[in-house]
Amino acid sequence: CESCQQPVPGDCPVVYAERAGYSRQWHPACFVCCRCTEPLVDLIYFWKSGAAWCGRHYCESLRPRCAGCDEIIFSEDYQQVEGLAWHHKHFACLECETLLTGKPFTLANASLLCSTCSQSRV
């Protein structure tokens, strides 16, 4: 098995990943996403950099994911702060929904707050 390096008995089912080449095989439980370890045996998988990826993490390896709506951001125009990304329409205060582009804000636990709402929480 490519993952656990244990032998695969002849009567045991195996997973072959076409994109990895048929010389590689896995126990069904060992064929998992390289990022989240989600089992991939019954899912569509992606092969990149010599590893299997689930759809979610493969897409995140190519494009950022919006911290506001959890969707992949396809536009080149988005807001990024401290390693997180937002569509411009989602870069808004969690409490009052004021758009925050160009305005002061606080970021705590991936939540955005305008100055007014941030002060009212104290």
Automatic annotation (TrEMBL):
Domain LIM zinc-binding: 1-64
Organism name: Pheucticus melanocephalus (Black-headed grosbeak)
Keyword Membrane attached: no
PROSITE patterns reported in the protein's UniProt record: LIM_DOMAIN_1, LIM_DOMAIN_2
Keywords (A to Z) from UniProt: LIM domain, Metal-binding, Repeat, Zinc
Domain of life per record: Eukaryota
Alphabetical list of SUPFAM superfamilies matching this protein: Glucocorticoid receptor-like (DNA-binding domain)
InterPro entries: Pk/Esn/Tes, Znf_LIM
Recorded GO CC terms: nucleus
Protein name, entry field: LMCD1 protein
Segments traversing the membrane: none
Single annotated GO MF: metal ion binding
